[in-house]
Design a protein that fits this description.
By secondary structure, the chain is an all-alpha fold. The protein has two helices and no strands. The radius of gyration is 12 Å and the shape is flat.
Length: about 45
């Protein structure tokens, strides 16, 4: 289940987390792929 954003999210931190998640998925991290697929399921 996706996390909710705080009232005043730090967009720089969120951008950094997204980049790290993407890098992990590219490198074959199955947990990263599960997290991405939970947000963007295959159509």
């Amino acid at each position: 289940m996706p996390k909710t954003l705080p009232d005043h999210p730090n967009l720089e931190q969120l951008r950094k987390q997204a980049k790290e998640l993407r890098k992990s998925a590219i490198n074959g991290d199955t947990e990263a792929m599960k997290a991405i697929n939970a947000i963007f399921p295959a159509s």
